[in-house]
Amino acid sequence: MEGPQSVRKPSIWQCGKRKRWCIVAVIGLIVFLALLFALLGVFVFTRLATSGQHGASAQGNWNLHHFPRKTLPISLGSDSRLSIIQKARDKTVGSVDIDGVVTVQTSASGTPATVDLDVSSTDKDLNVDLEFDETRREVKIITPPGLDFAKPRLRIRATVRVPGESCLELLNINTIQLSVDIQEGLLTCATPKATTTLDVRSISGELKIKEPLDRLAKADSTEKTSLRDYIVKMETTSGDINVDLIMIGSKAQFNSTSGNFVLRLLPVLNSTYLESNGLHPALKTGTTSGRTDIALLDPVWIGTKSNTRALSNLDSSHSSTSGNIKLRYPSSWEGKLSSSSTSGSHTIRGKGLNFNHNHEKSAEGQKGHGSLTLRIETLSGNQDVLVGDE
């Protein structure tokens, strides 16, 4: 009987052959996976290009689908109040890259108040809804949620037309990404009534108002303002605030987190109205990291024979954490001045400005006989203040 057969060990050539086969198999698998990922990449890129195309040139030319204009009649009502609100639908997946502007302007007298909405999108299925709440006098611009595979782009232009004879008691604008542009002539109102408020807020949109300050400063006093209190409130998170604005009433307030301020302000003050109602104008600005650049012009007085009286009844404060502050106040300003900074520098000067002390991190001074105070406060931002002439 033959014994059990001995196990034959593979030869060195056979072992090498198996190893080569394993290496080839691994390389083949890697090549297969690379081709698979490449094909998937081409598919996703094509889908993005067709649904949320961002292949823009340096000039921002997008392949946009233009929707038909929507025109909505609105009623201002007897109380002459109007709100314009940008709202987002419930967000499920994805996001939308939105830019655009809300423009508020006057139209010819006798024409109806309307809102025109022009929308362009990189995805033809994404549109914007426009609604008007009759009870609340509220225009709603409702933007859509995004897609799960793309980030489409929307361009929105909403134009609100208010008849020239209308007098708004309250204008409230609140947007997310959209900038706000309030055009010339809207803020002038000739009917003597109670307080009028302009309240404009945005997250990332720029706020812009350009009133013809030079022309208004030279106009007849009856054209400048009525006997009422005008309150201005403007606020953003990251959007800039850029205004040429008449400062007529008891308060003008500007706030932002990181947006810059470029403010050119003309005080038009009715001495009779302010004194009889115990009011004095207040100007306040506050930002965290944005730059503040303010030019306060010589005031125009109504209700007094002299238009050269001192601006001695202004209570003002300007604060910033890390942003720089640049102030240019007119030579007619009189009052107390208080400046403080933790680590920033300050340069404060002006003809007739006398300092009680002017140290490295703080300063206090007085000009004329005004009793109210100009306060400037920064943490690390620098201060550059000029009152009147050098």
UniProtKB/TrEMBL annotation:
Low complexity biased stretches: 332-345
Annotated protein name in UniProt: Adhesin domain-containing protein
Tagged with keyword Transmembrane: yes
Stretches with biased composition (Basic and acidic residues): 357-367
Keywords recorded for this protein, A-Z: Membrane, Transmembrane, Transmembrane helix
UniProt region (Disordered), positions on chain: 332-371
Transmembrane segments annotated in the record for this chain: 21-45
